[in-house]
Structures are given as C-alpha cells and as structure tokens.
C-alpha cells in the first residue's frame, strides 16, 4: 500500500519504504536477508528483493539509492515479471496506481508514480520516484 500524502509504501513485517529509507535500514530489516545487491557504483546502489505488500500482494522490487537515500522503487506486481504478457501487466500496474493514489500517472509533493513499458526487455513495471530527478 502507498500513502498518497507521503509516498510511503508499506510492506510485510511492518517495513515502510519512503524517501528517508537507507541501505542500512534495508540491511537491518526483515528484508535484509532477501535483498540481493544489483548495482554498487557509489553514489548509486540498488538491491532486488521479493516480498509482499502489507495487504499480501506479492511484489518484486528494485530499490535504487543515491548517496544512501532511496530515490526510486521499480515494482512488479507478480513475483516473476515474465508471468504475464506486457499489455496485461501494464494495465495491472496502471490500475494499481489508480487504486492506490487516485490517478495514473501520479505526481505529488513527495515524488511520482508511473506505469511504464520497456520494449528492450518486453516488460512492464511500476516506478515510484522520490524527490526531484537526479540530473
């Protein structure tokens, strides 16, 4: 679940992701043992983790940090992004944003949420971005 006012995303085991979340908090959380390093090129760091939202929805997340601050979450609503066809996944992601935040795409004081299709790898995901884009 995503809070419309703050952009905080609530996961299982009481884990809350928001713009103040750090790699150290990730390591110390119940997600820590599941987190797989994806990029480590400081000031950028990314981790992949499979978990569930607080409502039980299975999600596959890529958490991207810049200067140890959470900048984006790439989210797939199924555990395996290859499970669904691109058109169906894109529609599911757009519907999820509308259900959570009221509109798709969404822009708020905390950042933005958008459903996107990537033709290079034929997948769709949902992207939450915190703060302003990094130049």
* Shape designation: globular
How many β-strands, per DSSP?
A: 9
Question: What is the spatial order of strands in the main beta sheet?
Answer: 3-4-5-6-9-8-7
What integer value in Å does the Rg equal?
A: 14 Å
Secondary structural class: alpha+beta
Question: Biggest sheet, in brief?
Answer: 7 strands, antiparallel
- Tally of separate helices: 2
Q: Encode the helix/strand succession as letters.
A: EEHEEEEHEEE
What does this structure look like?
The chain is α+β, with helices and mostly antiparallel strands. The protein has one domain (9-130). It contains two helices and nine strands. It has helices at 23-28, 86-101; strands at residues 9-10, 16-17, 36-41, 44-52, 58-66, 69-76, 106-108, 111-118, 123-130. A seven-stranded antiparallel sheet has the order 3-4-5-6-9-8-7, covered by helices on one side. A hairpin with a 2-residue loop joins strand 3 and strand 4. The longest helix is centred in the last third of the chain and has 16 residues, at 86-101. The chain is globular, with a radius of gyration of 14 Å. The model has no long low-confidence stretch (mean pLDDT 87).
